[in-house]
Amino acid sequence: NAGVTQTPKFQVLKTGQSMTLQCAQDMNHEYMSWYRQDPGMGLRLIHYSVGAGITDQGEVPNGYNVSRSTTEDFPLRLLSAAPSQTSVYFCATSGTGREQFFGPGTRLTVL
Amino acid sequence: AQSVSQHNHHVILSEAASLELGCNYSYGGTVNLFWYVQYPGQHLQLLLKYFSGDPLVKGIKGFEAEFIKSKFSFNLRKPSVQWSDTAEYFCAVTSTSGTYKYIFGTGTRLKVLA
Question: Which residue from A91, B63, B67, B84 could staple onto B59, CB 3.0 to 4.6 Å apart?
Fold first, then answer.
């Protein structure tokens, strides 16, 4: 089992470009979420989903879109990248045990 | 508002010293509490969790935490740290029911000197 996978591992964008960060899981977990990690600010929840077709906003949703068409995939879209979105992005999943399982992260730089 | 406070942002200890990291939360209703660890260059992984029952919970690598409901606290402890414990530690809270929305603290960066 791969667990939680994220692609790409690193990405550099120019201001205004769009891109999609991929997250996939093979754990059959209903709950998936996206966080950004910035120095001194911990992990901040961007969007989350409690199942296919259901998504909701977290603490810092502006500038990001998500969709959940399948249980396995939960892509995060940056609509028009800004330097303030430079961060490390983590995808996480959770089952009935409520423990979160994290992916390896995507380090994004926006110039 | 829901929040998690970790009082110590940076902690430096010598090997064999005892560790206590503070965590206080503000979250309505009954909660589940977690400590996660992030080793350098790695993703977060679970250290321990509290759901119910004995408020003193034991986790991996000799870590333990005590849930004190009256103080809304869930402090992490280890009697004797090792150099390999150098990492960032995050406290997190979620509700026991409804959505699985997690709130994380800002983290404590621990450096253990050999």
Answer: B63
